[in-house]
């Protein structure tokens, strides 16, 4: 993609306004928190203290809207305490400009590295830098700095208290995540009726797993409907795929295929009913037609045989368990004994410290995209602060504030947010500035307008960053109106310095990029390695059925999903980057992705028919697993180094396995699909030689 096309696409993405589900009551609660803090501070303090406290309440409320599964009061308090500390330290250093620039650079570097912990940590850390840049410009003493820091913490405390006192749909995010996973399974069952080899996006299952992780204290209060359906949904996916598969399941056409379609339709109806019950905390209501379709067939219905019959019986049992686990009232809770490990353990906040330190240490290298982003944003913010201070516009902090809020570790988000930030700032500042110029509102009217703007921002923030930037820009103008700043100076200074900060951010990524395009082969190799380890874990169960290690297969599956997600995200980012050298062509990229999906699907089909513990061991599976284990490291290295992977040894082991068995079982046929997938991968990633022109002699 050329630079002009990339800039056009990112600008269009930044200015796009999307339809999103609004949460008016949650937005109203957040706006009320800001209103309480501003009103109390204006009543008991000064306008400048009101401005400072308003930013604390605003930032704490904004953090609770981020996609995090931790309790919202904890997020609000954590953000408020971090803002209070950074603001107080900034006040201590602002008297010496050199010392403040050093502190700002250090703070920004840490904020950039915080993206290694997670997107919520990165966003919150960037927000801390932006708020510190604004609040330290309000003149005060050391005691006043303590007052400002305390008021910022008070704003977070108010937001947390409102969340506790006025809970709105408790466990709502966890319910939505689990319901989305069940609905995704239902959609998968419907698509399998028409496309027996349809693909499945595991992202809803990954989100449901993340939402299910909690502390023992949270698990004791968890509604019973959130306890069991997730694990059953995980087990349903391979059963649905094996039932619909034309190779391992029923024939592609005929009475047995019609029976499979009937079972898949009934499964979709049941899963949709359970998803609706979980989402709204109601009993499960399944239609009689769906229940009748799931009954054991009589003489009037075709009878499935072989692997298809085993899959159908397992599907009926799992669906009954799903309905039973979710069919209870929201008030009922499930007692959780920590020794039973009936929930995914989420580490407490103190235990997250070593995890975060390990993540920072892992990304603190020059080759890391997070590390390069931290260096990039530090240089831009420091330069923006220096230029903003030298320009005779006042409000010099707006340039670095814009840069730190729009910059992200990847090209597409940085450019799209930069365009959206400037467009939203222009609209918001002109609207708010026009109101200030026409009506000259007083202090309390400005406070009311600021609360209105922040309420609109909370309500509409998911519709697009340009809309949120418009509301934030107007909010800042009205806050400065509370402090007595002139509206005309606010408008022109903010527009000019916002443009400066945005241009610095965009130029920094052009001069000092970290293209995802060049690492596509590494992501593909990681996915191949994860797929191979998943296949080895499943084959080990066939080789030694008496060795029961279910966690090994489960952990390998989770690693495979994470590697696939990283590949898909890398491809999505690479498609928007203005880089011609991709390391892998578009055609090869699509072919490799299809082959890797087929490899994972073949392993999933084997997992759906794991042998019982009393089944005889399979020497052929053990020999094939050994050959695959030996070939996998060189194959992943070949993908990285643009060589053709060599799968000769696995092919030979499979031929011996197939010749040694009298009847081909599920494992043998699924292994054949797996070998077809790795052969397609080898064809996709192998370097292509240039064709000789006709009539030209070869070397």
Automatic annotation (TrEMBL):
GO terms for cellular component: plasma membrane. This is FUSC family protein. It is a multi-pass membrane protein. Residues 210-231 are annotated as: Disordered. Residues 384-507 form the Integral membrane bound transporter domain. Keywords: Cell membrane, Membrane, Transmembrane, Transmembrane helix. Belongs to the YccS/YhfK family. Residues 81-190 form the Integral membrane protein YccS N-terminal domain. It comes from Streptomyces triculaminicus. It is found in: Cell membrane. The chain crosses the membrane at residues 26-43, 74-92, 98-117, 152-168, 374-398, 444-461, 467-483, 495-515. Coiled coil: none annotated. Pfam families: FUSC-like (PF12805), FUSC_2 (PF13515).
